[in-house]
Fold this sequence. Notes:
This protein is α/β, with parallel strands linked by helices. Helices cover 37% and strands 16% of the residues.
Amino acid sequence: MHITGIKTYMQRVDERPRLLLKIETSEGISGWGECYNHGPDWALPPLLDYLFHQIEGEDPRRVEFLVLKLNQQCRFPPGALGLAAISAIDHALWDIAGKAAGLPVYMLLGGHVRDRVRIYCGVYSAPDPERLLDQTFELNEKYGYTAFKLSPYRRDLHSGRWGELVRETGDWFGRIREISPSDYEFAFDAHAKIFEPYKAVQLAAAIALNDPLFYEEPLRPEHIPAWRELKSKLTVPLATGESLYNRFEFLSLLSAQGADIIQPDICVVGGVTEMRRIATLAEAHYVTVAPHNPMGPLATAVNIHFAAVQPNFQILEFKPHVHAPWALDPYMPVNGHMELRPDRPGWGIEIDEKVLATDDYVHWERKVTRKPDGSTAYP
């Protein structure tokens, strides 16, 4: 069996662009992968065309060899776009390997260490407690969710006194905890909007009283010593990693004892192959893995197989999609978990290429926040 061609499809999931990759082989077996659209979105198809020529004619089941080749053929370490493209290739190669063997990918990775994969739902906003209770009850009744992720900001960070925002957040979470079922868990994603570490400490203290599941990415990821200092001052689990790219960056974070939970993205770091290396490093540091996954049904499928085999996996991010018509049979939550599909080879999900033939791309880009004085801030 050898690789004969690729196809790329720029699509959307809900209101975000997503790029899908199909790798074709001489035996008629094809595999699918998903890129993270960092932007510019349309840079990915020609990049994948370029990378295809480095793997054309190769046996797609030699996943480790081909991913190493793609990384090592780069003159400089690949960055965001390069690793996003390599991630999709890695996914597609594993899909082919599983289909060729007649096995789900998780069996090729050593077999499952858990029977199902726990998930949490991203709410991502900070609604009034009573409204949030209605949302969480509905999600619990429909899908069995008992874990949710919120924003810790009740208003714009730069309008008014910071200490007042911190107090409001603490009071608000206290009310949520007061009226919610005791088994519900709430995480908070600060989205790297805080520049000063002491402010991140203050906000963490406000939510600490009510036992958050974790406190995610209050700071930018670049300066590792700041994460070491931050973690040393917190009494809540500190999570980060969606903006880190490879095992070397994660090793720096872990060696500095800068996180309790890491959140690599399987569509960012270079795919399953690199994700497992990162997770193994975390395991050696007594750190768990809660993958970043705001992606589409295909990326969710890939994450489920990773989570099934990884001993230090904790919980997976998943928000049910409203619009992803190309996924014929997406994994959906049952009792707050994703069930494995032992009778389905590869990723266990079917892609409808007829739907992909219709252009469904939507443009999206981050909006830059402006402070009251007109200067920019992290969004």
